Amino acid sequence: MTHDASIKPEIDAPEGPAPEGLEITDITVGDGAEAQAGSTVNVHYVGVEYDSGEEFDSSWGRGEAINFPLAALVRGWQEGIPGMKVGGRRKLVLPPHLAYGPAGGGHPLSGKTLIFVIDLLGVS
């Protein structure tokens, strides 16, 4: 299954309880360079809350991809992006301990399970 990287992905509302651990699902497997733990990644992404299905962030909404060292991102991204190849689209489901920590942690998303769909556009 391929996807059109110029179109923002839609995330279906999840069913059932949130997972305890990181869930990684490849929607499309890329054929470009592979992201490593120490890579800087260029990505388009959309993030929604697991429980509500509400979108809380999207690079698509800003109209430009982001470029970040993986080491600077939440742990679920640090664990879920390596092995992904440029041109791929991957869904990550991050429990709170791999996202913004337990409830009361000071971040608006603390205590929440998050879903991200990420298009890997480049690695360096």
UniProtKB/TrEMBL annotation:
<feature type="compositionally biased region" description="Basic and acidic residues">
    <location>
        <begin position="1"/>
        <end position="11"/>
    </location>
</feature>
<feature type="region of interest" description="Disordered">
    <location>
        <begin position="1"/>
        <end position="23"/>
    </location>
</feature>
<feature type="domain" description="PPIase FKBP-type">
    <location>
        <begin position="38"/>
        <end position="124"/>
    </location>
</feature>
<dbReference type="InterPro" id="IPR001179">
    <property type="entry name" value="PPIase_FKBP_dom"/>
</dbReference>
<keyword id="KW-0413">Isomerase</keyword>
<protein>
    <recommendedName>
        <fullName>Peptidyl-prolyl cis-trans isomerase</fullName>
        <ecNumber>5.2.1.8</ecNumber>
    </recommendedName>
</protein>
<dbReference type="GO" id="GO:0003755">
    <property type="term" value="F:peptidyl-prolyl cis-trans isomerase activity"/>
</dbReference>
<dbReference type="Pfam" id="PF00254">
    <property type="entry name" value="FKBP_C"/>
</dbReference>
<dbReference type="InterPro" id="IPR046357">
    <property type="entry name" value="PPIase_dom_sf"/>
</dbReference>
<keyword id="KW-0697">Rotamase</keyword>
<comment type="similarity">
    <text>Belongs to the FKBP-type PPIase family.</text>
</comment>
